[in-house]
Amino acid sequence: MKQQACFLYPNILGKSVAKGIMAFLVILTVYFLVLTLVSGWRFAQGQFFQFWFYVVSLALGFGIQFGLYSYLKGIVKQKAFAGGVLVTTGATSATAMISCCAHYLTNILPILGVTGIITFIGQYQIQFFWLGLFFNFLGIIYTGSKIIKFSKQ
Questions:
Q1: Cα distance between residue 149 and residue 135, in whole Å
Q2: Nearest 5 degrees, angle CA 62-CA 102-CA 106?
């Protein structure tokens, strides 16, 4: 009888969750730091209260993706040490990292628009927030599918 693949690696899961939480907090800190340095603390607070749903959602998406990537990287290493296939590990990790982080330019664009650096972006700020959320969703789905695929090997 064929043994079922195990998708949960408890020793890796805890570290990955912690890294995801840290990534969430770091991106929120960067958001407040950039807005405060460019336009002052009151402006940063006002923008956060006005767009808190988008800002928190984007930061949460970043944290989830970072945690998933960390988890994928951990299981890749564990399987490699256990005699797994090393050829696919580098490609899987690199692809997951690119999908995880490459789209964050769209997440930064609304911040740039808010601070007045790019007027055009400021006019379409909400649309850029939604675009960033869409790419967050795609990145989470993609990285999650790689975790499932790699766990079955």
A1: 21
A2: 70
